[in-house]
Amino acid sequence: MTDAKIINDPVFGFIKVPRGLLLDIVRHPLLQRLTRIKQLGLTHEVYPGAQHTRFQHSLGAFHLMSEALISLRQKGVFVFDSEAEAVQAAILLHDIGHAPFSHVLENTLISGITHEEISLMMMDQINQDMHGALNLAIRIFKDEYPKSYLHQLISSQLDMDRLDYLRRDSFFTGVTEGNIGSARIIKMLNVVDDSLVVESNGIYSIENYLTSRRLMYWQVYLHKTTVGCENVLINALRRAKELAKEGSELFASPALRYFLYNDVTAETFHTDKQALDNYIALDDNDIWSAIKVWQQHDDRLLSLLSSNIINRNIFKVEVRDVEPTDEELMQLRQQLSEKYNLSCAECDYLIRVNRVQKDMYNPFDDHISILYKDGTLKDITEASEILNIELLSKKICKYYLSYQRI
Question: Which of 295, 309, 162, 329 is nearest to 234 (CA)?
Answer without folding.
Answer: 309
